[in-house]
Amino acid sequence: MAKGAHIKVKGLKELKKRLKEIPEQIASEFDAVMGAAANDYANRAIDDAPRDQGLVIQEIQSNQKKVMYWEVTSGAEWSAYIEWGTRTRARVPAELAAYAAQFKGGGKKGGNPKQKIFDWCKRLGIPEEAWYPIFISIMTKGIHPHPFFFIQKAPIEKQLMIDLKDTIKQVMNK
């Protein structure tokens, strides 16, 4: 999921053309609003991400690529598998199916999945006699989805549009 989530602000190009008379000020204020939205997106994803060893939350970040272009990413290579689940338990929203397809069957090679699952069971205090059945279940059925990243998009996008409209009003009234 390192490619990140993108929120499209419809009409931004047209708005930028129309507001060329106030370029520096509007760009700066829009950038601040968009940066705040990107940071809010990342923080919400961090709040909703699994906590086990903190390996996913450490990789969630927002970065500015250029003025008025921010990107939020979850760089942990297993983020997609946690987000949508695996094997028979995988649940990918239709609008993200094409994006999610790049992760299918691309799990990390190497390591010892049995040992990793046993270590996880131990951290959770699961009785040892349940470890092997859990391992078999995960290897055959997969893991349940734990949405934490893309569920942030709609509320952030909605608030961003409100904040951008408010920013336009403020700039126009100065």
* Poorly predicted parts: none
- Tell me the total number of β-strands: 2
SSE order: HHEEHHHHH
Average pLDDT, all residues: 89
User: Major β-sheet, in short?
Assistant: 2 strands, antiparallel
Portion of residues in helices?
Answer: 40-55%
Structural class, from secondary structure content? mainly alpha
Our estimate of the beta-strand percent is 5-15%
Strands of the widest sheet, in order across it, are 1-2
Secondary structure tally, helices:
7
- Principal-axis shape: elongated
Radius of gyration: 20 Å
The end-to-end distance, rounded to whole angstroms, is: 41 Å
Report a brief summary of the structure.
With 174 residues, the chain is mostly helical. Helix content is 49%, strand content 7%.
Would you give an account of this structure?
49% of the residues lie in helices and 7% in strands. The protein has helices spanning 12-18, 23-48, 79-84, 97-100, 113-124, 131-141, 153-172; strands at residues 60-66, 69-74. A two-stranded antiparallel ribbon has the order 1-2. The protein starts with 11 loop residues before the first helix and ends with a helix. The mean pLDDT is 89.
